[in-house]
């Protein structure tokens, strides 16, 4: 079947063709977007897995360093006392980090965009001519 030239076709036929082409274009773009998101999701999943593995390895490395510190301090103190000293130091560091985190969370709450809301109020007043 040979297609008629654009000049020989009615407006209804041209609009129908345009509608079909737009529909096909949107469907193809959605398929491309889905494929791209799938590829990126796989890559992100692989990256998250590697990051988790790195975190576990860092934890093991940190624990090994803590054991090394206990053993090293055990050369000058009884081993139980060196373990106690290292444990207390780690608890103090953890407590300080927890307090700093708590303070940071308190200053970030409530999670409302106050500056943006104030800006909107100012913009509305300016548009109305009140400012």
Strand and helix map with partners:
Layout: H1 11-73, H2 79-108, H3 114-128
Helix pairs in contact: 1-2
Q: How many β strands by DSSP?
A: 0
| Helix proportion | over 70%
Tell me the overall shape: elongated
Helical stretch count? 3
Helix/strand structural class: mainly alpha
**Biggest sheet character:** none
Summed over residues and divided by their number, the pLDDT gives a mean of 87
**Which strand-content bin applies to the residues?**
under 5%
C-alpha end-to-end distance: 68 Å
H-E string: HHH
Q: Return Rg in Å.
A: 33 Å
The poorly predicted ranges are none
What are the key terms here?
131 residues, membrane, transmembrane helix, mainly alpha, Phage holin family protein
Structure at a glance:
By secondary structure, the chain is mostly helical. The chain has three helices and no strands.
3D structure, described in words:
- This protein is mostly helical and 131 residues long.
- The chain is elongated, with a radius of gyration of 33 Å.
- It has helices at 11-73, 79-108, 114-128.
- The chain starts with 10 loop residues before the first helix and ends with a helix.
- Helix content is 82%, strand content 0%.
- Keywords: Membrane, Transmembrane, Transmembrane helix.
- InterPro entries: Phage_holin_3_6 (IPR009937).
- It comes from Amycolatopsis pigmentata.
- The chain crosses the membrane at residues 48-73, 79-100.
- This is Phage holin family protein.
């Amino acid at each position: 079947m040979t297609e008629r030239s654009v000049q020989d076709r009615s407006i209804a036929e041209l609009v129908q063709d345009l509608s079909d082409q737009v529909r096909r274009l949107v469907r193809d773009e959605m398929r491309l977007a889905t494929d791209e998101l799938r590829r990126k999701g796989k890559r992100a999943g692989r990256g998250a897995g590697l990051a988790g593995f790195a975190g576990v390895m860092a934890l093991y490395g940190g624990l090994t360093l803590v054991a090394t510190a206990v053993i090293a301090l055990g050369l000058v103190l009884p081993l139980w006392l060196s373990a106690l000293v290292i444990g207390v130091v780690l608890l103090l560091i953890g407590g300080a980090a927890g307090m700093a985190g708590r303070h940071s969370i308190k200053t970030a709450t409530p999670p409302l965009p106050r500056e943006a809301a104030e800006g909107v109020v100012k913009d509305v007043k300016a548009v109305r001519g009140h400012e």
